Task: inverse folding
């Protein structure tokens, strides 16, 4: 019996992951708003580093946390075609930005803020 090599699904990097090495400009500004969120990337103590993504908010039901989603393509070698998939992550949503469902947001990677939250919203793109 010959061991058959199974090569089925090949991950293809989505377009939003290509700008992975984005420069993290200094977000901290003078505290002129009354934002007291320690986990805010602009007014708090959270440092952003690593990857930056843009996506659409699909849920804002959690307290100070949103779910965002963006499309990516997955290559199927057998059919030599791409299928559409979605990447879905949780991100901290500070009250000074308060992104709502349907908003397009930019998130940056940071230290783990909760069990499933390692990203923080840095900008709401209307
Ligand atoms: Zn803030």
Result:
């Amino acid at each position: 019996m010959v061991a058959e090599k199974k090569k089925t699904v090949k991950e293809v990097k989505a377009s939003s992951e290509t700008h992975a090495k984005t420069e993290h400009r200094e977000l901290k500004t003078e505290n002129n708003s009354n934002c007291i969120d320690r986990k805010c990337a602009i007014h708090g103590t959270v440092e952003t580093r690593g990857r930056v993504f843009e996506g659409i908010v699909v849920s804002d039901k959690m307290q100070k946390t949103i779910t965002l989603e963006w499309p990516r393509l997955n290559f199927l070698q057998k059919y030599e075609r791409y299928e559409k998939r979605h990447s879905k992550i949780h991100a901290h949503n500070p009250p000074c930005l308060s992104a709502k469902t349907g908003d397009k947001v930019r998130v940056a990677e940071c230290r783990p803020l909760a069990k499933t939250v390692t990203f923080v919203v840095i900008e709401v793109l209307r």
